[in-house]
Amino acid sequence: MKSSKLIAFLFAIMTMQTTNLAAQNNTEAPLLTSTEITVKQGHNVQFMDAVKKWKECYLENNGPDTWNIWRRVQGEGTVYILSGNMKNWAEMDKEDAAGEECGRIVLNDILPHVEKTSYRVSRLMPEISREPSVDMGLVWVTYFKVKNFDDFNEIIKGATAAVKAKEGSYRGIWYSNIGGPGINADYFVSTPFKNFAELDIERDTPAKIYGDAVGEKKAATLSQKWRDAVEEEWSYILRLNKELSHQ
Q1: What angle in degrees, to the nearest 10, is found between the helix axes of 149-167 and 206-214?
Q2: Confidence label for 18 from pLDDT (cuts 50, 70 and 90)
Q3: What angle do CA 91, 92, 93 make, to 5 degrees?
Q4: Are 209 and 159 in contact, with CB atoms under 8 Å apart?
Q5: What is the end-to-end Cα distance of the chain in Å, rounded?
Q6: Separation of alpha carbons 45 and 53, rounded Å
Q7: SS3 state of residue 184
Q8: I need a labelling partner for 104 at 20 to 30 A (CA). Which of 29, 72, 200, 202 fits?
């Protein structure tokens, strides 16, 4: 699945700035592009109608790209996340005739309803990640701002391995953010769910599973190491809008 050129187009128009994305160009793991779009108050219906119009135009012109659009459940304002995947950086160089043909819709119909955008590129961490669910309706995304990267990575690798050993698979999909201005989180993990009802299912936390695996004494040491390694963490639930997405 490739990232929609709408992502780059929105970003270029709204921010008119570049980011330093070359720092982590040393791995073959896939890339995730995401644009956080804050819609002007009272403009949500118009924004959705405009995105539907753009999508219809793009598909009519045989556009090759696919994308997901998520709406953030909690937090201030009306916020959407437009996301897509790339195999490598070279996909950024590909021409998109359909995107160019429909660009006027972005300028004339979408942007008037957008308050601001924030664009980022992230690198998949496949060694500790599960495969995406084909029927996922929402994701629980937890972000981490890190002070000690070595300790952080040691703990998440141990915790995810413990979860996989107990449950047979990893729970989440892990990413590291690639640098640039305004990138608050260094890492994030996206845990997919089919629907909200699945959030009511009680399961042991990864910390509990990891603690049980290593023993009480080591668990206490790791807990302190985690507090020292992580400066801040926060979470949002994102709900997939299938009507606006193209998978």
Answers
A1: 90
A2: very low
A3: 90
A4: yes
A5: 8
A6: 12
A7: coil
A8: 72
**Which structure tokens are listed for 127?**
């060694």
Name the token pair of 43. 């403009």
Predicted confidence (pLDDT) at residue 78 exceeds the cutoff of 60:
yes
Report the SS3 class of residue 70.
strand
Of 104, 177, 91, which is closest to residue 141 (Cα–Cα)?
A: 177
Beta strands at 114-124 and 173-177: parallel, antiparallel or unpaired: antiparallel
pLDDT value, residue 89: 87
- Report strand pairing: 230-240 vs 138-146: antiparallel
Rounded Cα–Cα distance for residues 148 and 133 (Å): 31
> Closest by alpha carbon to 29, among 85, 87, 84, 83?
87
* Tokens, residue 132: 């995406």
String of DSSP letters for 104-166: HHIIIIIGGGEEEEEEEEEEE-GGG-PPPPTT--EEEEEEEEES-HHHHHHHHHHHHHHHHHH
Average of per-residue pLDDT across 199-211: 93
- pTM over the 0.90 mark: no
Per-residue pLDDT of 124-176, as tens digits, reads 999 999 988 778 899 999 999 999 999 999 999 999 999 999 999 999 999 99
Q: Among 10, 21, 4, which residue's Cα sits nearest to residue 121?
A: 21
Return the residue matching tokens 């997939």.
240
| 4 — pLDDT class (breaks 50, 70, 90) | low
Backbone angles phi, psi at 84, to 5 degrees: -160, 165
